[in-house]
Specification:
Elements (H helix, E strand, L loop, with lengths): L1 H38 L8 H23 L9 H4 L1 H36 L11 H23 L15
Helix pairs in contact: 1-2, 1-5, 2-5, 4-5
Length: 169
């Protein structure tokens, strides 16, 4: 399982840093150009707000699994010192199992919402871009994080835990 964890870690890093990073860079450029056009030329870019909102969804979808794997999410460890490493190891596995189940259900519901968005014609306000593909992208991001949590449950290290990666950004 350690090989699987290393592979998953490389995949989420590539997705977050390359795909998410490129989308974030494009979103930043669009925002800067829109502000310049709006304030200097008094001619805002039509649909820039729609594109920025949808790009932000992509950035979030690509970053969730990477953030979770590298320890970038907030964790409150109130009882870890008092319970000891043996019990903490099992409670960590239980929390990861519950998280994997929750993110699997979330991914499944996002897939259903994507299908419904296509059926009912749910679109953005200005450009009328369908929300369906963005639900699917979010579903993929949440499903990837569920997979990360599932692999972490079974991964082995020196003390039996699968700690977040030390590399970070």
């Amino acid at each position: 399982m350690d090989h699987a964890l290393g592979f998953i870690e490389r995949v989420v890093r590539i997705i977050a840093l390359w795909f998410g990073g490129v989308v974030l860079f494009i979103m930043m450029g669009l925002t800067v150009v829109d502000v310049i056009f709006r304030d200097v030329l008094n001619a805002p870019i039509f649909g820039a707000e729609d594109l920025s909102r949808l790009a932000l969804l992509i950035v979030v979808a690509t970053a969730v699994a990477y953030s979770g794997r590298t320890g970038g999410q907030v964790a409150v460890e109130l009882f870890s010192d008092a319970l000891g490493p043996g019990i903490t190891r099992w409670t960590d596995k239980l929390v990861r199992l519950i998280g994997a189940a929750m993110f699997t259900v979330l991914a499944w519901r996002l897939l259903i919402n994507g299908r419904d968005a296509a059926i009912y014609g749910e679109t953005s306000q200005g450009l009328l871009l369908s929300h369906g593909p963005f639900y699917y992208i979010l579903a993929a991001g949440m499903g990837l994080y569920a997979l990360v949590l599932a692999v972490e449950i079974f991964a082995k290290t020196g003390d039996g835990e699968a700690p977040p990666s030390e590399e970070g950004l």
